[in-house]
Amino acid sequence: MFAGRNKRVMKYFQAENVIDTVILLCGTSYLVIILRDYRYDTFLKAPSVAEEAKIYFDNYMASPVAENYLLFLIALLFWIKAVIQLKYLEFSGNQYQMIMQFMPDLKSFMALFILSVLAFALVGGLLFRTSPEFASLFDSFMTLTSDVEL
Question: How many other CB atoms sit within 10 Å of the CB of residue 106?
């Protein structure tokens, strides 16, 4: 009776398990993209650079998944997983607790920052509608958040 009441129940839907599963699925889908890019035996027959570039470009344009976004998602999830793992280390447990205490403030700051950039994007879209950088709200938001090239 005592052992039956105190058995530990596995929690399959903990945040760490979900992040691990999403990382596994994203990594597998990226591997599928890589294998699909070489489905014409380009990896084995060593074609010319121009021929391989044309095949890769055709496959890249036909892909429903943007590889850059997928790689960004994988890297972001790995960083989240690394921060979660910091709470188990003896020397970084206190820092993890401080970060978790500051997290509501960081979330509110991020929301206000994104809203202010979005407001500037709206104003830029209204003032500079003829410019291609501000043709739509998405374009103006990406213009304001992109790197400046000198």
Answer: 10
> DSSP for 50-94?
HHHHHHHHHHHHH-SS-HHHHHHHHHHHHHHHHHHHGGGSTTTHH
| Cα angle 146-149-150, degrees, rounded to a multiple of 5 | 150
pTM above 0.85, yes or no: no
Rounded Cα distance, 89 and 95, in Å: 10
Paired tokens of 45: 């027959």
**Contact in structure between 86 and 96 (CB atoms under 8 Å):** yes
- The predicted-structure confidence for 99-121, as pLDDT tens digits, reads as follows 888 889 989 999 999 999 999 99
Q: Is the dihedral of CA 45, 51, 53, 56 positive or negative?
A: negative
Tokens of 98: 């401080």
Nearest CA-CA partner of 65 in 22, 42, 23, 36: 36
CB 38 within 8 Å of CB 59: no
Sequence length of the chain is 150
- Cα(4)–Cα(1) distance, rounded to whole angstroms? 5
CB-CB contact of 70 with 29 (8 Å): yes
